[in-house]
Write a structure and sequence with these properties.
Structural class: alpha/beta
CATH class of the domain at 424-547: Alpha Beta
CATH topology of the domain at 424-547: Leucine-rich repeat, LRR (right-handed beta-alpha superhelix)
Largest sheet: 7 strands, mixed
Number of strands: 38
Length: 547
Amino acid sequence: MGEAKAPAVETPSRSIQTKFEVYTGDEPYLFVSYSHHDADKVYPILDALYDKKYRIWYDESCENGSDFRDELRHMIKGCSAVLLFVSSSSMQSPFCGMEIIVARENAKRIYPIYLEDSCVPPAFEILLSNTHHGTTENIAKLIKTLVRDLPAEAMDRLTTTGDGRLTRCEDNGHRIAVDEGISVICSGAFKNRRALHHIDLPETLEEIESEAFRGCSSLEEIHIPKLTGRIGESAFRDCVSMKKLVITNDHTKVGERAFENCASLEEICLPDGMTEIYGGVFNSCKMLRSISLPEGLTVIGESAFSDCVSLEKISIPKSVTKIDDLVFNGCLSLSLIDIPVGLRKIGKNAFKGCKKLSRIDLPVSLSSISGAPFRGCENLRSIRVDPKNKHFKSEPNKSDGHDHVLFNKNKSLLISYPANSREVQYDIPDSVTVISEWAFCDSKKLNRVTIPDSVQEIGEGAFANCTLLDEVEIPDSVIRLDDCAFRGCKNLESVIIPSSVTDMGWGIFDGCEDSVTVYCDENSVAQRYCLSNNIRQARICELTSAD
């Protein structure tokens, strides 16, 4: 019987070395199992993983003996995962075999990378059968897959500078804790990190720059630290899984569209000292049903709550002086809003498309209303103004009616007619000189309207979508007929337009071209308009003769 041979000692390749020192600290790391004969293939992959900020331990030497084996066991027990490079050499190595067994005994996940088409021993086939295999055919693809799949805690995922700025994060972990001492999270640092579910921000954080967390589609909630004074534009935009937001600093400035399209956001806690909500901040937060606005709030910026389709009610604090353009545009469920004394300005289309809003009361303090504030509020039945208001007034649309129409104080401007008024006919007061844009829009019960000879201008979309309106006579006081004035009036049969109308906009009869006949004078602006837009027309004199 021959003498037993000692296990062969591997001879490392000296032609190549890694660019880094093996990790020896206390944080999570990767253990690398490989044959030194494959160093020229393995080390470039390790370098690439090191560039991705992974902490890596591997055997640099070819030591033997029980002490070395004990060190290997110790390093495997302490690692987060084992990276196994499979080749004919590694599958014949007693060290690699021991490492695979120890990894399985300690429930460590093994990530095999096949360096070649090699035969895996039957015992190892069973151990590796339920693991995800990688190959070296496409190194870039391999590294991308490993970054996605390897344990996130084994990576220094955050790139920081010496002056407390966090500039970048790798996207391969569900939870991240940002170290104390970081004062700024830079633009785009976490942008589109779709694996991120939770983040712990440090108390030292002072600023979150623009788009810092944009597109973190799995992020579920965010608590802004007390010292944070600024959240940049679109900082958390498109964080579609975020359900809760907490801001505690009274002086935090929240940039435009900072939380736009946080479509799952249900709970928002804002500090009472916050004075302004900037434009589009909560635009398209589709799950938001209610919100308590800060007691110190003075301005609600443009589109701040646009398309918050589940928002049902909101109470405006007494401190608010301005509701800007489109603030509640598209809030389809909004049925109740309390507007306090102190409000001075309502912007253009501020409540556009609030389809469930049935009544609105405007305070004595209101001094400015921009165009079409209630456009598309198809359930609105009454608009009431405090009688002591010096700039606006409201009156019922008939002497004994309860459906109030909104005017300026001297009733020269008809601002808004309640779209859901029960009245089928309305006589515009003879004090009115301008019918404001979209004033009668969506008044679907309105069948007849009398326009007095005091009116000089009919604004954009003034009678749009008045679907029961069948005939209109425009008096010869009118000079301008603006864009889309009768758009969507699908039952409109006749409109008389006198020669006094010298300015006609586009799309005036869109949607009713097939039903309407325009009665106008020969060679008038109205006739030329009809000819160029293929609209049926006849002479006013013919209509008079027929009568």
